[in-house]
Amino acid sequence: MSRPEDILPPDLFYNDSESRKYTTSSRIQRIQSDMTHRALSLLDLHSPSLILDVGCGSGLSGEILSNTADDGTPGGPHVWIGFDISSSMLGVALEKEVEGDLFLADAGQGVPFRPGTFDAAISISAIQWLCNAETSEDSPLGRLSRFFGGLYASLRRGGRAVCQFYPKNDEQKKMVSQAAIKAGFGAGLLEDDEGTKNAKTYLVLTVGGGDLDGDITGVVRGMDGVDVMARPGVARGAKRGQEAKGSKGWILKKKEQMERKGKVVKASSKYTGRKRRVQF
Amino acid sequence: MKLLTLNFLTCAIKTCKSAPSSFPLHPRDASLEVIETDLNLPFLKNILPRLMWDELRVITSELGLPDLPPTPPTREDLVVAAEDAAVEGEESEEEASQTAKDLHRVLLETTVKEGKLVCGNCGHEYKVLEGVPNFLLPGHLV
Ligand SMILES: C[S@@+](CC[C@H](N)C(=O)[O-])C[C@H]1O[C@@H](n2cnc3c(N)ncnc32)[C@H](O)[C@@H]1O
Ligand SMILES: [Zn+2]
């Protein structure tokens, strides 16, 4: 089967008719839903979080993120922001009136949020597209580096990202993972149904620091078939503890210290999904 | 696009990354829409310390919305104190205070429907159509 990435750029491939066909296919709905749940289990969220969905398409994952814990979304309902390069895909998401915010953007151009914005990020079946540079002035490596660099900065310390993607071959799998590590992430690869035509590759990324277990070996501990690529602080020269004064990292760290010095905050109670209406 | 998102979104242009005036983006010719949604108290508590309050106040005042208090609420302010409801060891449901409801209305229900977002540093305008901002950049600005 040919890979759509090899045929057309994503915004042209996912035109109006393809976006509709994609979103209404019950087979695709089921597969994307299964992968979203798999990614959520790897994100290990316990309370409502702010989540970035990279290449969110028509919001198939987003609809799951918006569900309550009682409806099967761990820690939900989450608040999510999704972006995609295809306006047709976003158009379908608008028609469905998804709860998340949407914007039109190219992951290969970066992630335009201030440092430490998101608790977590998810990306389902999208980032293999970054390996196809559409223009002569841009390269897959440049696009991957802008994407992972931006993603890393936009996550809070202790945050995680899970990117399920379809690598064309081992070389591409390696190129993507190495780009993530270079950006500062701890990275691990998880393969489901390896070697079959249903094989699924999950890149599990952690940002060191914070109170979560930022060590990738902690995330994937006890799971079969996980290949740990790097551990935070090992792959990287500069540790997060040694940020230059005034840098994004430094500001983030300061903020966290300030928060720690503030009032002791009670852990949030479990969200029970009870409906409340705002009275005005 | 929710005002919550506007409190985190920055200019995408490379040379603006280190410029303080590239955040927040300023809405221009904006039409707003209120879209009601369920109040999510644990989320509000989670996001509260991450908000840039002064910048949120700048945006609400630029949009002509009612003034926000000069200092942000605390997590405690978001919950109605209910001594009688809390029985030791029992999972009791916390009740959202009026402060939480107001914050929910501003951050999660007030949205920019049409207009543009303007960078205070480079002046770049991001168009918003049907609530969706366009952040695609011409190649030379990446
Ligand atoms: C197979 S669809 C998956 C959509 C959604 N994540 C899902 O699971 O249903 C791949 C999506 O990635 C998007 N995409 C491809 N390249 C992208 C890029 N550079 N930036 C943002 N989105 C991109 C496409 O437009 C498309 O919506
Ligand atoms: Zn700018």
Automatic annotation (TrEMBL), chain A:
GO MF annotations in UniProt: rRNA (guanine) methyltransferase activity
Predominant location category: cytoplasm
Compartment(s) where it occurs, according to its Swiss-Prot or TrEMBL record: Cytoplasm; Nucleus
Gene Ontology terms describing biological process: rRNA (guanine-N7)-methylation
InterPro entries: Bud23-like (IPR039769), Bud23_C (IPR022238), Methyltransf_25 (IPR041698), SAM-dependent_MTases_sf (IPR029063)
Domain Methyltransferase positions: 51-133
One term under GO cellular component: nucleolus
Domain 18S rRNA (guanine(1575)-N(7))-methyltransferase Bud23 C-terminal: 236-277
Domain of life per record: Eukaryota
Family under the similarity heading: Belongs to the class I-like SAM-binding methyltransferase superfamily. BUD23/WBSCR22 family.
Protein name: Williams Beuren syndrome chromosome region 22 protein-like protein
Organism: Karstenula rhodostoma CBS 690.94
Automatic annotation (TrEMBL), chain B:
A GO term for molecular function: protein heterodimerization activity
A Pfam family matched in the record: Trm112p
A biological process term (GO) from this entry: tRNA methylation
Organism domain of life: Eukaryota
Family per similarity comment: Belongs to the TRM112 family.
Name assigned to this protein: Trm112p-domain-containing protein
